[in-house]
């Protein structure tokens, strides 16, 4: 969106409005500048786009915790030279600290920006939007709704990172006393209720959809607000916030419990209702799961991969409920696999490296986990095999690869580049001439492997899913097809709805299965009941709430892999303590021969404790405002 891209111009004009202090600043400053910002319609609209400009960048591996902090992927130490910033990598590798937190979205700093300033600017907008005399009433109504949504989203983002946060309903006056400025963190349930209230107010006046796409894509619609409301209520119903015993004794100095202390099954019913409302409305506006309908002459195997891959990279496709307008060029560079030796490593960086654990999450071609499939040789999964003719549109025929890469589901081949994998795209469209299809070679000295000291996959895998088919890398040039990275897409809501329904039923039924099966069908897999009954060593898993919960969780980790969502899911499910302790492993990428390359290497053994479920608040902020309670486990020296 051109107007959002140009908001930096306005930021320069209203210098001082976004300043940060060592404690939570909710007192507006520079009042004459505020008055100037609302003296006419044009300036008021620019201020609205300033409120948009604080949206955290979901495409940035440096700024979004989802890419590395959940250990879904890793990067090589040497690659940090091109990475630009080490904050996300250090947060995953070394861990957080309370003296100078990484990715600090509370105070700002270390690749996080102060979201309380964003909330403050939303409040300033809401308090002053009546001033422009040349503003049409219908425009004002819509803009107010957008500002309320943004204010809700910033509270939601902070809630996910920090748990209970101060609710900033309105800015304090300039005359506020020091005691008034020393705000409290509000209980999680109050924060959730406030977010939902804002979204309910916004939904009434938001447009159903965007009419003028060139100018307005990226702006908020009713579908986006309903989807965010549903995701907020799912978060509130999830184990992290719903009766979590870890935080039963976390209280502020007023004696208030900041977390709910008892499990409430009714929260899942509320979430399920909100999800159904969001899905129904989105579908009424044309939302649907993406299926490739292009005219390139492709086989069914390639079409299966394009169904999945282009659901992410087909700009503004109908599955995307909320797409980002941020530039994804760097994300594509660090995900791109080189297939020619003349493709320069400093241009095609090839750094984001999915781990072996992530790779093993994907199903077999029978649609069940690799360790459950009766027909899949799990014990010998690291053995070397030769690619058969029947797999030629997934891997290079006759190529030697690990058994781990063979007979996997289509999402595996759509999502991952690896040694021997067919790389569809990069200037070659259509697969009727098999000889023209390129494939990845990831061993040392090969195009996709370690041919320079900095830029290569440390595990032997790259997230193909994040690279548009239309993106081209030639020698020293890289031309990326800019797409609308999905913040929320329909498959996400389908799986959340299945999750919520499963939690409110004594046992799963057809209603639960159908929402998972919609997503599996697009991935060319049979339904969960048929797949588990025929192929799993645990056929009864689909018949119990606990078993179906495990299936739905894994389905989300597969379907939404590399989109930054798995990190948040594992936290809210309270499964991170187990998942984030697993060793980070990859192939022996320093080997140039097949036999030595396919040997598992442990890169890091991460640690994770209860305190890591939430980011710490900077200790200096706690010192200045003793009413703020530090997150559990984060002392002044942590």
UniProtKB/TrEMBL annotation:
Location comes to:
Cell outer membrane
What InterPro entries does its record include?
SusD-like_N, SusD_RagB_dom, TPR-like_helical_dom_sf
Source domain of life is Bacteria
- Please state the protein's primary subcellular location: membrane
Positions of the RagB/SusD domain: 318-634
Residue ranges of domain SusD-like N-terminal in the record:
80-231
- SUPFAM superfamilies in the record: TPR-like (SSF48452)
Q: Which UniProt keywords apply?
A: Cell outer membrane, Membrane, Signal
Q: Does the keyword Glycosyltransferase apply?
A: no
Signal peptide range:
1-24
Give the family per the record. Belongs to the SusD family.
Instruction: Write down what this protein is called.
Output: RagB/SusD family nutrient uptake outer membrane protein
Please report the organism this UniProt entry assigns to the protein. Parabacteroides segnis
């Amino acid at each position: 969106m051109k107007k959002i891209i140009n908001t930096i111009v306005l930021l320069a004009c209203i210098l001082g409005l976004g300043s940060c202090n060592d404690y939570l600043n909710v007192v507006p400053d520079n009042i004459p500048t505020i008055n100037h910002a609302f003296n006419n319609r044009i300036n008021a609209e620019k201020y609205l786009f300033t409120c948009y400009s604080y949206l955290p960048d979901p495409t940035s591996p440096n700024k979004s915790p989802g890419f590395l902090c959940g250990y879904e992927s890793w990067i090589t130490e040497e690659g940090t030279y091109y990475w630009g910033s080490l904050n996300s990598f250090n947060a995953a590798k070394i861990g957080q600290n309370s003296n100078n937190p990484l990715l600090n979205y509370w105070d700002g700093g270390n690749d996080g920006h102060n979201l309380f300033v964003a909330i403050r600017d939303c409040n300033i907008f809401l308090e002053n939007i009546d001033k422009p005399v040349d503003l049409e009433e219908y425009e004002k109504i819509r803009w107010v709704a957008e500002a309320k949504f943004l204010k809700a989203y910033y509270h939601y983002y902070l809630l996910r990172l920090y748990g209970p946060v101060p609710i900033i309903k309105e800015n304090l006056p300039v005359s506020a006393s020091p005691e008034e400025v020393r705000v409290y963190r509000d209980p999680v349930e109050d924060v959730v209720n406030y977010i939902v209230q804002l979204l309910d107010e916004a939904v009434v006046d938001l447009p159903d959809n965007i009419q003028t796409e060139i100018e307005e894509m990226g702006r908020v619609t009713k579908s986006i607000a309903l989807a965010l409301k549903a995701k907020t209520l799912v978060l509130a119903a999830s184990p992290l916030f719903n009766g979590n015993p870890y935080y039963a004794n976390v209280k502020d100095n007023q004696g208030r419990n900041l977390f709910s202390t008892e499990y409430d099954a009714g929260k899942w019913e509320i979430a399920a209702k909100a999800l159904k409302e969001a899905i129904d409305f989105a579908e009424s506006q044309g939302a649907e799961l993406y299926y490739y309908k292009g005219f390139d002459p492709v086989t069914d195997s390639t079409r299966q991969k394009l169904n999945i891959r282009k659901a992410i990279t087909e700009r503004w496709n109908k599955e995307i409920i909320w797409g980002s307008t941020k530039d994804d060029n760097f994300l594509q560079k660090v995900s791109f696999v080189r297939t020619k030796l003349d493709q320069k490593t400093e241009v095609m960086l090839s750094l984001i490296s999915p781990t072996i654990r992530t790779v093993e999450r994907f199903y077999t071609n029978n649609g069940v986990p690799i360790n459950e499939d009766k027909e899949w040789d799990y014990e010998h999964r690291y053995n070397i095999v030769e690619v058969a003719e029947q797999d030629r549109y997934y891997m290079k025929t006759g190529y030697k690869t690990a058994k781990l890469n063979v007979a996997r589901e289509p999402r595996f081949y759509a999502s991952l580049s690896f040694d021997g994998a067919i790389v569809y795209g990069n200037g070659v469209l259509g697969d009727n001439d098999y000889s023209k299809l390129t494939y990845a070679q990831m061993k040392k000295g090969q195009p996709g492997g370690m041919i320079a000291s900095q830029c290569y996959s440390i595990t032997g895998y790259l997230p193909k899913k994040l690279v548009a088919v239309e993106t081209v890398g030639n020698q020293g040039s890289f031309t990326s097809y800019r797409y609308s990275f999905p913040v929320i897409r329909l498959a996400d809501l389908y799986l959340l709805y299945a999750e919520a329904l499963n939690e409110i039923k004594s046992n799963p039924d057809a209603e639960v299965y159908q929402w998972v099966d919609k997503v599996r069908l697009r991935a060319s897999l049979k339904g969960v009941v048929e797949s588990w009954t025929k192929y799993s060593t645990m056929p009864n898993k689909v018949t119990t709430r606990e078993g179906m919960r495990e299936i739905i969780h894994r389905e989300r980790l597969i379907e939404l892999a590399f989109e930054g969502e798995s990190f948040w899911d594992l936290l809210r499910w309270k499964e991170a303590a187990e998942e984030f302790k697993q060793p980070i492993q990859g192939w022996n990428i320093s080997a140039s021969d097949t036999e030595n390359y396919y040997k598992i290497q442990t890169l890091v053994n991460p640690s994770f404790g209860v305190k890591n479920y939430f980011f710490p608040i900077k200790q200096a902020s706690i010192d200045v405002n003793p009413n703020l309670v530090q997150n559990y486990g984060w002392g002044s020296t942590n």
